[in-house]
């Protein structure tokens, strides 16, 4: 039987019938290895135990078929280096022995490893993208703002969220509903040019469009997005209240809409201090995600008033005006705020409305000469007390200086001062107690 090799082998081993190595030929790439030590050893002894069965299969195949297939083996070299080699075994004759021909496939193995890593990275990115798409789909469906996805060519609606379906009274299958054909004739040309501009440039300014027989006014904003591997137009609809004296419009203007339009952070809590309603400005101020549920959480989770419970304060005070407090964000940082409250109690309601306004940041200007004078006062103790005691008392002066500064910056709020200094509240209390005992 004749066979050919496409490339020159990197290693050629001559084996007797028992698999003992009798001769070795090496290519230049691995010629530096002292493989001559293998002479007289069994081939199986040059690999780890887990790889021996591969070599046994090679010789068994060559014994029965004269030539074996290629088998990748992790070959252990005398230097301790292990490299992947693809071996093929050839039987030379009935009683002659074998030739094992091997080629170094480190480059191939590295490429396969890199390809595998790239493939895993692509898969991770794919699932991340799927997760993002799912997240935005949930936001799209749960948004109180009417939104719809419109085809760039036909201007038919591909998808509409529940708010848009209710607002525009769309049919159950909105995919056959053409956006332009359902506005008044006078606005059709304007809407067509707005959507066309969004397709060309990626966005378009808001325009006033009237829908349906009642000619309901809406502010339309359009922007180009990638939606399910194709370009679509995201259309956002904001209602226009043209006459607040109209009783029908006022009755249909929800309390949630009013709260969400307030420029300041705003909360409504029940008489037990549990959050009932929060506007988008509060979410932003507290660094919260828009989909986080705040309902029934304690007010004290976010608002801290010195060392007292804010709920107890609200129980005793019907009205508060510009009360200085601290707002705890989702990142556990403290923001100085002022709150104003009003207690609403009638036959239908028993709750507290809270307006929250952040203070402008103030800075505490530490006086370097004050700290220097404190440390200079210790100079006179040199030679009178031990060096260790001198350094210890100086450190206490520095600690007290910066703790006093932090307390001044937080208006005496020990919890906020401890967070600012990177201390636990208990550690700060221990240090303050130690300072007070020495004064």
Write the layout of secondary structure elements.
Layout: E1 11-15, E2 21-26, H1 49-65, E3 71-76, E4 82-93, E5 97-104, H2 106-142, E6 146-151, E7 157-160, H3 162-167, H4 185-201, E8 203-211, E9 216-227, E10 230-239, H5 247-251, H6 255-260, E11 265-270, E12 275-278, H7 280-285, E13 303-304, H8 310-316, E14 319-328, E15 334-345, E16 350-358, H9 368-376, H10 387-409, H11 414-421, H12 425-437
Antiparallel strand pairs: 1-2, 1-5, 3-4, 4-5, 6-7, 6-10, 8-9, 9-10, 11-12, 11-16, 13-14, 14-15, 15-16
Helix pairs in contact: 10-11, 11-12
The gist of it:
This protein has 439 residues and is an alpha+beta fold. Helix content is 35%, strand content 28%. The protein folds into 4 domains: 11-104, PAS domain (Beta-Lactamase, 2-Layer Sandwich), CATH 3.30.450; 143-239, PAS domain (Beta-Lactamase, 2-Layer Sandwich), CATH 3.30.450; 255-358, 2-Layer Sandwich (Beta-Lactamase); 368-437, Arc Repressor Mutant, subunit A.
Low-confidence stretches: 1-5, 242-250
Architecture (CATH level 2) name of the largest domain? 2-Layer Sandwich
* Average residue-wise pLDDT: 79
Main β-sheet: number of strands, strand sense, barrel status?
6 strands, antiparallel
CATH superfamily assignment of the largest domain? PAS domain
- Output the CATH class name of the largest domain: Alpha Beta
Q: What helical percentage do the residues reach?
A: 25-40%
Identify the strand order in the major beta sheet: 12-11-16-15-14-13
Radius of gyration: 39 Å
